[in-house]
Design goal:
The chain is of the alpha+beta class and 205 residues long. It has eight helices and seven strands.
Length: 205
């Protein structure tokens, strides 16, 4: 595994205390949601102190890499009409967990209790629905090792990192819902839909 670049460690001193997944999640939870569309590097997120889903996953992956773990992302793929979600994977005692940045009451942190990334991904299925109650999660990608795929430039670049999301979006994924099953999925209960509308951060007018 590639090591976190020594030359960049001073710039990421804020990650020094984030030496386990719970601390990483707590740190992300305190960052207001970035309602903009551009995806910033972890260094810029640390400076701006806001993050959306992808930015949070990238920052969490950077923190894991800083402390000697692989910077892994897992993409949850959805049907048309909904947005994909991405989480940062981590492993403890041979089991998988995930750090997640979201503005909603669902699709959040996962404790390391899952034997495989597939098990972990499946845990999000029933939480993933539209306001209509339609369930939209179709599958998930293989874990993406950012260091192996992109080196270290993504840590500090001033360029928009949306291309990383686009590449994963266009890539292969394991489909967990067949087209026949998709047509028979039960809609989320009205109470679940109500809870799904809860948000942590409101967009300023």
């Amino acid at each position: 595994m590639k090591h976190f670049p020594a030359r960049l460690r001073p710039a990421f001193a804020a990650l020094e205390k984030l030496d386990d997944a719970r601390k990483v999640q707590d740190f992300l939870d305190k960052l207001p949601i970035n309602f903009g569309e551009a995806c910033r590097s972890p260094l810029l997120v640390l400076h701006k102190r806001t993050a959306h889903c992808m930015e949070g996953a990238l920052l969490a992956a950077a923190a894991f890499w800083y402390h000697g773990k692989r910077p892994l992302l897992l993409y949850l793929k959805t049907a048309d009409g909904d947005q994909n979600h991405v989480v940062a994977l981590f492993k403890e005692h041979g089991l998988w967990g995930a750090v997640s940045k979201t503005n909603h009451a669902v699709l959040r942190y996962r404790d390391p209790i899952y034997r495989t990334p597939r098990e972990l991904a499946m845990s999000y299925f029933n939480e993933y629905f539209l306001d209509s109650g339609r369930k939209t999660m179709l599958g998930f990608t293989k874990p993406l090792d950012l260091a192996k795929k992109y080196g270290s430039a993504w840590l500090v670049t001033k360029k928009n990192l949306d291309p990383i999301s686009y590449a994963a979006d266009r890539g292969p994924y394991e489909r967990i819902v067949t087209k026949k099953i998709e047509r028979t999925l039960r809609r989320a209960h009205p109470l679940e839909r109500k809870a799904g509308k809860l948000v942590e951060w409101k967009k300023r007018k």
